[in-house]
Amino acid sequence: MTSELFSRLIVYITEAGVALLLSYLLFHFSRVYQQPYIRFWFLSLLMFALYQLLVIAKWALAAPVVADTLLQFGILLTSYLFALYLLRGMLETRVSDAAMLRLWSGRRLTLLGCMLAVVSVLAFVFGNNMAQWQEYFQTHLRLLVIALLLLTATVIVLYRIGNSVGQRLAAIMMAVWAGVYIVFVVWYLVSAQQQAGIRAILIFKSAELFSLFGLGLALLIWQQEHERTTNLQLAAKTRYLNRYDQLTGALNRDALLLQLQERMAASDSTPVYLLMLGLDKFKTVNESVGLKQGDQVLIQLTKRFESSILKPALVARTGGDIFALVLSDMHTETQLQFAVRHLQQLVEKNFELAVGQLQLTCTIGIACSVSDSNSAEGLLQKANIAFHQAKRIQRQSLAYQAGMEDETARLISWETELLHAMQHNELLLYFQPQLNLRDNTLDAFEVLVRWQHPQKGFLMPGQFLPFVEQLGLSRKLDFWILQQAVDTISRWRQLKVQLPLAVNMSPLHFQQEGLKQHIQQLLLQYQISPEMLELEITENAAMHDMEKGSNHIVELQQMGIRVSIDDFGTGYSSLAYLRRMPIDKIKIDRSFVMDMAGNDSDMMIVKTMITLAHGLGKRILAEGVETAIQQELLKNMSCDAVQGYYIAKPLAEAEALMYFQKQQASLSQ
């Protein structure tokens, strides 16, 4: 082997070694950073290394014709794939269009490389008369195609090129590499020699090695610069999130406290007001229109605050649907109330969502730096206390007053005790009979709740139900009562007592989704017929959203559960609502029955209610019957059923069973 041939072999081996080393480094980085463009760069340089190794194998081995053809196919395929994968990697760094990237997917580029290699080989396997063109097609045309792909990749990199040294160097080296191929082909075509000399090939391969080394170095620099930029962006994002809410761009709690403390320190005796603003029933909004639409509401609301005429000095989102707004330059109570009302109007303005328009209300708690706290943390705490107090007493806005903490602590104590009562069966069901006036039989028992408190003794509903509503435990209590009532029906059935139980539903629970499914699960669990369960809802619950309320009632009736309107006459009492609501029974409120005997107006109202209910095909029951005269008057007015202390007071379970047995015995006589 001559020294020139040995030098040529060394250049090929060096190119293969450098390409393998670079591809290994890129393979390692692709596993670490999981970036598609690095993976294509790795594949590109791996193909180039295989290309060099196959050239060495073809040159060194005296292979048979078939093996030689396969080696030539491998050389063509790997060289084309080198350029195609490099082009795809550069495309990945510039194009974000998923459709474009799918069009130039790795699978399609591999198929394209295979097609080019197959055409270049088969054209000369079956065409002996084209042997003189083989060198042109398989070497020079291939080099021109690769040069074109390298120039295309260069143009892609130059498009939107930044200040990156790696990107600039990569563009230069790909252009140089393409230039090397083009110069070599042009030199060969215009040269008088039919075959390139070893010296010319050594120069060409050395230039190719230089281009490979330069491009590999450029890709490594580019990748490191990209990751450094990414890390800087992540650090900047982290710093941003340390101060701002990711969803809305408003300040977060920590940044609010920091800036609020600075403002309070600079304001001297000038009052700074902190308003805690929360959206009413926002959880229901998320459940009905979806979390994404709920997020849009929060984003739109933040923009309204920031672009408002009375723009708050600071706007922060402290969690969920809760915003903290700082107002300064408020020197009078009138100015403050005007600003509060303005903020409420910003919330009440319709929100434009993909699902349509949405209207909301809000609750605001107010704290003042002069009178309530001289620290940002304390002011936020006082505003939060005022906010929750406003929620509990259903006020749109409320300023902090001394002593509210005691009320909060008392409610927390009540919450703990109520939850403990439900878990340990301290709550008791009582049953009040509903008497049918037509045949003097029992229609049902209404289920009422009492509390046998371990320290406070026996508590009536009025002593703890207001706290249940304020603490938002109505749904939980309703579920507990429903389960206990269904369990009671199941146990009574074993005692041959077949009597429906009527259970009161809180308005909030009745309006929420999931009630039907929960009742179905209970009926299935205890194997109870739905006709044994009746639900009582107030007028206001049914009228809050008439269409939605009507749909809920229809769903329950389709299950076989009867629905009645409780406390009729104290709410809307609309004829349209009575006609549209598919209810089974109307319960006249006790306030009309109480003075009926001595008040002609109440007498006429009750009589009208009875006539109206019968005209609409609904049964009617009068509550609060406490005298024989009241019962007789109601019977004469054709009232269907009555309930009250004259019939029986609310009874414990054992007493209710005894009452039922006595009533059955009296009917059998």
TrEMBL record:
One Pfam family from the record: GGDEF
Keyword Transmembrane annotated: yes
Regions annotated as coiled coil: none
Segments traversing the membrane: 6-27, 39-57, 69-87, 108-127, 139-159, 171-190, 196-222
Matches recorded under InterPro entries: Cyclic-di-GMP_PDE-like (IPR050706), EAL_dom (IPR001633), EAL_sf (IPR035919), GGDEF_dom (IPR000160), Nucleotide_cyclase (IPR029787), Rev_trsase/Diguanyl_cyclase (IPR043128)
SMART domains named in the record: EAL (SM00052), GGDEF (SM00267)
Record-annotated GGDEF domain positions: 270-403
Keywords: Membrane, Transmembrane, Transmembrane helix
Domain (EAL) ranges: 411-664
Domain of life: Bacteria
Name this protein carries in UniProt: EAL domain-containing protein
Species name: Rheinheimera muenzenbergensis
